Amino acid sequence: MGVLLLLGVSTAGAGIVIVVLLLKNPPLPVAKLCAVLALTFSASAVVVYCYGWYSVALGGPFPVLCERRNASGAELVSRQQEYLPLRSACSYSDGSTVEYVGMSINVLVCVLASLAVVLTGAAAFLRRRAPQSPQRARNTIMRWAC
Questions:
Q1: Which residues on neighbouring strands pair with residue 82, listed in sequence order?
Q2: Distance CA 45, CA 53 (A)
Q3: What is the rounded distance in angstroms from the CA atom of residue 2 to the CA atom of residue 8?
Q4: What is the C-alpha to C-alpha distance for residues 135 and 133, in angstroms, rounded to an integer?
Q5: Cα gap 112→47, rounded to integer Å
Q6: Which of 1, 3, 71, 113 is most buried per CB count within 10 Å?
């Protein structure tokens, strides 16, 4: 998970640098910009998920810690942790369970991943719609003719 986190951070950082460079050098290739943004958003989703995974694995649950005793005075028995979706629950001796869900992290991962999917589709659509140069069009025709 640590390697995935490092790869995600470096990919997101490289994507941001590439977007800045694309914006500085006109004409703006919109299909390429969409593709780089999709890569950046998907890498950001991986980074946010890894952060949430570490917060669960290294002492969760989040956003608050389990209390030793619940409101009725029952002792904490165990903590259950799930990693997809990121979730933690505290079980008490009286049978009650208090579940803590890191909704902010889950929502952020889903939003970033959804944006990446939409931008990937937009990049593919724009790439197909892009006008071809005469040389490229002739090569395409020759390839289909043979």
A1: 87
A2: 12
A3: 10
A4: 5
A5: 10
A6: 113
Q: What is the value of pTM for the model shown? A: 0.71
Burial of 118 (0-12, 13-18, 19+ CB in 10 A): middle
DSSP letters, 88-112, are EEEEETTS-EEEEE-HHHHHHHHHH
Tell me the per-residue pLDDT of 102-124, one tens digit each, with 9 for 90 and over: 678 888 999 999 999 999 999 99
Angle at 79 between CA 66 and CA 112, to 5 degrees: 85
CA angle 128, 136, 18 (to 5 degrees): 60
pLDDT value at residue 63: 45
For residue 87, give the 3-state DSSP assignment.
strand
